[in-house]
Write a structure and sequence with these properties.
By secondary structure, this protein is of the alpha/beta class. The chain has a domain at 107-311: Metallo-dependent phosphatases (Purple Acid Phosphatase, chain A, domain 2, 4-Layer Sandwich), CATH 3.60.21. Helix content is 22%, strand content 26%. It is built from 7 helices and 15 strands. The chain has helices at residues 28-54, 72-76, 92-95, 138-143, 160-166, 214-224, 303-311; strands spanning 80-82, 85-87, 107-114, 120-125, 149-152, 171-174, 187-188, 190-195, 198-203, 232-234, 242-246, 249-253, 269-275, 279-287, 292-301. The strands form 3 sheets. A 7-stranded mixed sheet has the order 7-6-5-4-13-14-15. A 6-stranded mixed sheet has the order 3-8-9-10-12-11, with helices on one face. A hairpin with a 2-residue loop joins β8 (190-195) and β9. The longest helix has 27 residues, at 28-54. It is globular. The N and C termini lie far apart (121 Å).
Length: 312
């Protein structure tokens, strides 16, 4: 039995250990210091690990080539679920596939796709990023019903999507940075297509008319489509929809139907190109729960009419 006194410490249960001698482990501050030291060490080794990968001494994770758009890039390239099926990185067996086409930077010119003089309506899509086994939003197929042609500006990933779109209308596609494995006659690095005398050039990566000057746009057009004078330049890659007329040329980016603005999986955008008797009109549509909602439009007069008026 312990008797308390003013000069003696408070009594403790029998067998208790004084607080000063207990083994309570490292304090909270020491644990924090150790954790921070570990983070510093791990961070300091990142450049070395990256250098090993570049020298071929370590595995290089697959990632698309081109400018990143953080933090949206990290979100966009994670694995998501679309219609109960995975949407994300291409399977490993597809990463090892190489195209049998040989050289790149090929430009294919197709003249007079149609000679009808009736107004045309062409569906525009880009950066669908559908892996094998994935599915595109059904709103896209519903919106494209009745179009005369479909143009895909690249990064389709799975060539099966071309067959699904071809069931609606003839399809042409540009080769995106994620389509190096695709070996299909409907996919080329660049296209120059003629619709009723309107020249439509298509490529995956092209400067934005909102950031590039008219001189840069004209110079890049000559570099990418040598010898051509396109009335419309269709491109993608940025996942940001835009349409603008610059010095008589219509520049159109339909955005992405699945990963708009490089963010998480959501309803994105598509576009339409209207070829009429006196003008060429581009419309951008936002995908909705049911159907689409018009967002923006841009137009230019048909160049053939301007040339005829100048000759007169």
């Amino acid at each position: 039995m312990c008797l308390e006194a003013e000069s003696t410490p408070k009594c403790r249960p029998d067998g208790a250990v004084p607080h000063a001698t207990r083994s309570a482990g490292p304090s909270r501050s020491s644990r924090r210091r150790r954790r921070n030291q570990g983070l510093e060490i791990a961070t300091s080794r990142l450049p070395a690990r990256r250098a090993l990968r570049q020298r071929g001494r370590g595995p290089v994770p697959w990632r698309p080539r081109g400018p990143a758009s953080p933090p949206g890039w990290e979100l966009a390239w994670n694995r998501y679920e679309l219609a109960g099926r995975p949407l994300g990185h291409p399977p490993k067996e597809r990463q090892a596939e190489t195209t049998a086409r040989g050289t790149r930077d090929s430009c294919r010119v197709v003249g007079l796709v149609t000679d009808t003089r009736a107004p045309m309506r062409i569906g525009l899509i880009s950066d669908s990023h559908i892996s094998r086994g994935g599915e595109l939003w059904p709103q896209v197929f519903d919106a494209f019903q009745g179009v005369d042609a479909i143009l895909h500006a690249g990064d389709l990933w799975s060539p099966v999507l071309l067959d699904e779109l071809a069931a609606i209308a003839p399809v042409w596609a540009a080769r995106g940075n994620g389509d190096m494995h695709v070996n299909d006659a409907r996919v080329e690095d660049t296209w120059v297509l003629d619709f009723q005398g309107v020249s439509v050039a298509m490529i995956h990566d092209f400067p934005s008319p909102e950031r590039a000057s008219p001189e840069i746009l004209a110079r890049r057009t000559e570099q990418r489509f040598p010898g051509a004078t396109p009335d419309v330049v269709l491109y993608g890659h940025t996942h940001i929809e835009e349409a603008a007329g610059v010095e008589g040329v219509l520049y159109v980016n339909p955005g992405s139907p699945t990963l708009p603005y490089n963010k998480s999986l959501r309803l994105g955008s598509i576009g339409f190109l209207h070829i009429e008797t006196d003008r060429v009109l581009a419309e951008l549509h936002q995908l909705a729960e049911t159907g689409t909602v018009p967002m923006h439009r841009a137009e230019v007069p048909r160049r053939s009419l301007e040339l005829a008026a100048g000759a007169a």
